[in-house]
Every structure is written in C-alpha cells, then in structure tokens.
Design brief:
By secondary structure, the chain is an all-beta fold. It contains no helices and 12 strands. 0% of the residues lie in helices and 67% in strands.
C-alpha cells in the first residue's frame, strides 16, 4: 500500500528516488527585488529599487535512472516596484537626459525550461536528500515603466526575451512516503536578454541586447516546493 511504498529504501545507501518514478511538483518564491532582477531595464543601472517578485513554477520529471531525473518546468513571474528619483541618460543618440520622479515598474513574464536533476540520499532510509540541478530556460514577458517628467505622467513599455542556463542546488525531505518538501537556491548562471522599448503610442524607441555570466546566490530566487513521486507499485 501507499504507506509501504518506500520500505526498502535502506537496501541501497544513497538512493533517494528509483528508476521509473515520475515526479510532479510546484515551487514558489517571493522576494525583494534587486538590480539583478531588472535586466530588461538595462538603462536603469545603479538605482534604488523597492519592490517584490513573486514566482510560481509547476513541473514534471522522470527518473531515467536511480537518483537521475529529467523534466520540464513552466513558470509565471510578477514583479512590482517603486524606484527612487534618478537622473536618466538615454545616450547621445537619443538626446535625452532628464531627472525623473514618481517612477514605478511592473512586469509579467512566462517561462519554459528543461532541467536535469541529480539526487543523493543522506540517510539509510533515504528520507533526506540533496540535489544539483542544471536548467535551460527561455522566458518572454512585458514590463511597464511609468514616471513623471515635470508634472506630466509618462509610460514606457518593453518586450523582454531571455535565455538562461542556470544552476539550482537544493535539499529534499520526504514528509510522506511519496511526498517531498524541497528548498532550492538559484545560484545564477549564463544569460542573454533582448529588450525592445516602446513609448505610449507603441512606437519602438530602442532595443538592446545584454549577456552576462554571474554565479552567486540571489535572495529573490530561493524556492520552496512540494513534489509528489509516483511509481509503479507492482515493482516494489
């Protein structure tokens, strides 16, 4: 029965999940926005940000070997923040340099990713595990940047595309025989962004590409998750 599905985990030290298992889950994160998160607003370097990021990501994975899993993940991210007053320089080509106030930023993006995850069990019963995950993702979204120039409210919208190769380690614990709680950390990676900025009338103002490689913990990318492991009970 369901209660005995993992009775034999102690036979193989280090085993956390078995070949043939299917896992389905959901991770969520909620954090404070940092400059790292506003890559699409390339023009807004070195400013104070006060805002939040919320992300939800459902996923499904298949264990093609013990402890080795491949899968797909989808995501939705919402970002909302206020920015401190700033002197903005859009470059000589745009001939725009101004002091802005009342600035706000909101963004919605959707992502799809492939991931490979490798687990190791930490205890004889296979209840506690660590995992390392490599993720290749593609995201697209829109952001809205509103501000006041003098007393006149203005809006700029941008379309953002991003491709990323990221490293996400984490810990997993079986809280029921086939249900895991997880905590994972985004440690950065290699990413490429393309931004197209438009004005109120929908006319393209500029587009820009940015690529970077950065490995460090992003506090807005700490994900809490729940995973259900499904397996063929006849094999047990």
């Amino acid at each position: 029965g369901p209660g005995g599905g993992r009775r034999d985990r102690g036979i193989d030290q280090g085993r956390f999940a078995y070949k043939g298992e299917l896992m389905m889950g959901l991770t969520a994160s909620y954090g404070t926005m940092t400059n790292d998160d506003t890559d699409f607003m390339v023009v807004l370097d070195n400013i104070r940000l006060n805002g939040t990021i919320a992300t939800v990501k459902p996923f499904v994975g298949y264990f093609f070997r013990d402890n080795r899993c491949v899968g797909v993940r989808f995501g939705y991210q919402h970002m909302k923040g206020e920015l401190g007053n700033v002197d903005l320089d859009l470059g000589a080509g745009n001939d725009i340099s101004m002091s802005l106030g009342g600035m706000a930023l909101s963004s919605d993006s959707y992502s799809a990713a492939f991931f490979y995850r490798s687990y190791v069990g930490l205890d004889p019963k296979g209840r506690f595990g660590l995992f390392a995950e490599l993720e290749a993702s593609f995201s697209t979204g829109t952001s809205r940047f509103s501000y006041k120039s003098g007393d006149e409210p203005k809006n700029n919208n941008s379309n953002n595309i991003q491709a990323k190769l990221a490293f996400n380690p984490g810990v997993a614990v079986y809280i029921f025989p086939n249900v895991c709680g997880t905590l994972s950390f985004g440690l950065g990676g290699i990413q490429y962004s393309h931004v197209t900025q438009k004005n109120d009338a929908g006319e393209k103002i500029w587009s820009r590409d940015a690529s970077k490689m950065r490995f460090r913990l992003n506090l807005a990318d700490i994900n809490i998750g729940m995973t259900i492991h499904l397996w063929d009970k006849k094999k047990r």
